[in-house]
Design a protein that fits this description.
two-stranded antiparallel sheet; single chain; globular; mainly alpha; 19 helices; 4 strands; metal-binding; two-stranded antiparallel ribbon; Cytochrome p450; binds protoporphyrin IX containing FE
Length: about 450
């Protein structure tokens, strides 16, 4: 199940935001093959982005020519170049034939900009924005966002060495001279990410092109006198990294919880049947009419938040937290897991009780429920995540076949309408630690 959910989230992001293609599960062997290559590139990128580079700790090894990570990155970059150049060419060829009512993806937007400013928006520039590391024009450097820094630090360092810092500064300076952004400075990286994601969630940022604005926000960083490592992989890899496993993992936990609590599954199905009926599948516009489904999502995120410690934050000035003096520049972790499981805040915190969120709008309950973090660095993808979660879980719940499940599910003492005896093995099988995919393939 996790594999299928992961491919689904990649499909959503690639199709809506990046390439316009649905790589997985579409019965098109050519696209499947392309998707497989894309996945391999992504997997390798994630592994290398988080890899330690021994030369960072013992620079002498780099001087002696020990460059394992650098060499791997160069090879990976070649693969990514080939993949995305092919994609750019395919999309360039199909330009003019696409549906005019369809929102443009990132690459399509960039190809339009290429027409008006070909010397600036070269193919290499487009590739760099999408995924590769070779054009450092988007690198701004300095006190970076924790996620971005954490994810790319090692590989960035290796690339810094390959590039030479002065060259980068020139590139950044050129950008600064090219323009600034009128967006409020408080928004920072969050705003940039929000703009990117807004392609999908439909927020209108106006102006002359989404991507233009996204880029301006990066320039704004520089004009603001800040430096930040935001290499171009931040644009896409961070989105894919931050958005795919988190959403897929939440779907998997939700399914596990529902199968272990069939009475909740039944109530969610009843809600969907009542609101939508049996003649059509639910769609995005139904989501606000399904509060119990939203409660299930919130309760899943409370019990199993994908970012239990959020991401590391840094105090920008001296402050006091819980009576402790925290000097400026201290790394702070928020133990969201402990807050979500605190018996002082929750009645029976270890129990799955979606009803506890009845009446709550959205996914935030003060500082009690904060699966997407809080403040100006909170997750910019929450709107997208909640929609994908709602649509996916809602569809599965709507289509859940109790008769077939009944062949397996017997002895569900808690479950209305189900007959008894085989519940215990089912519950054991439902536990993701035991392996969900077998169970779900049987269902
Ligand atoms: C169930 C799904 C998701 C959960 C639970 C989640 C949770 C989080 C959390 C806890 C943070 C750190 C916030 C903080 O420290 O205050 C975060 C950051 C982030 N998330 Fe999500 N996220 C999800 C889905 C997504 C999606 C779908 C995207 C994008 C398509 C995304 C993009 C990001 C980005 C770019 C950041 C870094 C923001 C920054 O550093 O300013 N996330 N997310």
């Amino acid at each position: 199940m996790k594999f299928a959910f992961y491919e689904l989230t990649l499909n959503v992001m690639m199709r809506n935001m990046i390439s316009g293609k649905r790589y997985f599960g579409g019965n098109n062997p050519e696209l499947e093959e392309e998707g497989k290559r894309f996945r391999e590139i992504l997997d390798e990128t994630f592994v290398l982005a988080g890899a330690s580079n021994i030369g960072d700790y013992l620079p002498v090894l780099s001087w002696l020519g020990v460059k394992g990570l650098e060499n791997k990155l160069i090879k990976l970059q070649e693969k990514r170049d080939v993949f995305f150049q092919r994609l750019i060419e395919q999309l360039r060829k199909s330009k003019g034939t696409e549906d005019v009512n369809k929102r443009k993806t990132m690459i399509e937007q960039l190809l339009s900009l290429q027409e008006s400013e070909p010397e600036y928006y070269t193919d290499a520039m487009i590739r760099s924005i999408v995924l590769t590391y070779d054009e450092p024009w988007l690198w701004v450097y300095g006190d970076g966002g924790s996620v971005v820094m954490g994810k790319v630090r090692n590989s960035s360092r290796a690339m810094f060495r390959m590039m030479g810092k002065s060259e980068q500064w020139v590139v950044v300076k050129t950008l600064v001279e090219k323009g600034g952004c009128e967006t409020d400075g408080g928004c920072e990286l969050w705003m940039m990410m929000m703009i990117i994601i807004s392609v999908d969630v439909g927020v209108d940022v106006g102006g002359d092109g989404m991507w233009c604005h996204a880029m301006m926000v990066v320039w704004f960083y520089c004009t603001n006198g800040r430096w930040m490592v935001m290499d171009n992989s931040g644009m896409v890899v961070v989105l894919l990294a931050a958005g795919s496993d988190t959403t897929a993992g939440t779907m998997e936990w939700a399914m596990s919880l529902l199968l272990n609590h069939p009475q909740v599954l039944k109530m969610a199905q009843d809600e969907i049947d009542m609101v939508i009926g049996n003649n059509r599948l639910l769609d995005g516009s139904d989501m606000p009419k399904l509060p119990y489904l939203q409660c299930i999502i919130n309760e899943t995120l409370r019990l199993f938040p994908p970012g239990p410690l959020l991401v590391p934050h840094e105090s920008s000035s001296d402050c006091v937290v819980g009576g402790y003096n925290i000097p400026r520049g201290t790394m702070l972790l928020v133990n969201q897991w402990a807050i979500h499981h605190d018996p002082k805040l929750w009645d029976d915190p270890e129990t799955f009780k979606p009803e506890r969120f009845e009446g709550l709008e959205g996914t935030h309950d003060g500082f009690k429920l904060l699966p997407f973090g809080s403040g100006r660095r909170r997750c910019p993808g929450d709107g997208l995540a909640v929609r994908v979660l709602g649509m996916t879980l809602g569809s599965i719940i709507q289509c859940f076949d109790w008769e077939r499940a009944n062949e397996e599910l017997v002895d569900m003492t808690e479950s209305p309408g189900l007959t008894m005896p085989k519940a215990v093995p089912l519950v054991a099988k439902c536990n993701p630690r035991v392996g969900m995919s077998k169970l779900l393939s049987e269902l």
